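Take a look at this chain, tokens included, and explain the fold to me:
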Amino acid sequence: MVARLRHAGMTVLLTFFLLPCVAEAAMHEWAPPSAAVPGSNPKPETTNPKRVSSLELEGGPSIFGGEVGIGLGIRGPLAKNFLVEVGGVLPHPVSGYASDSVGTMSSPFNDSYTARVQSFAETHLALLYPLVQTPRLMLDGGAGISIALVDDHTDHLTASRFAVPQTISTDHHKVLPAPLVLVGVRATLTERLSVRVEASYVHYANQDSVNAQSFELSVSGFLINPMLQIRL
């Protein structure tokens, strides 16, 4: 429980550490025109429809390695034609990401080790660029960095003819950085609501060891995020 709370705190912190920067960029993107200087000849004012912020919040399921978590994110303009996305996946238990096992024998003892990734969380920062855009649809792509927060769990079973078998469990908490490549498509529903499906490819190198025994627990694949987006 303590480990999961620690991972949750780290995920929230890493996911939203750039929130002020994104919000400031969004405010500048839609900043109102400056007041006319006294004595100048201001241009006639035109009536424009009310604009909403370009800052968007998003959330939905996050699918990776056959497991489903909860994904959250925030998007906003960074520069002309570019968007920045800060997002993440909340900590959740997993069972099928990666596993490895080793067996040793030293008479009269027979030792076996089984290691696996038992929990996963993720946060990322990505720069996006619109590739195709219509009034209702947008296809974008980009790249960035992803940081996975995982728990590696190892069970060490010792058996012999002269003693009751014993199992010793070990947990290691890892922070695994990896490059991120993503593509997404968004469909606009209303002025403030959109749906978006995003696919990201990541590879997290992960080697663990217990009692001089090494385990290959690297994780790679596509992170699929169907999201509901709300424009503020």
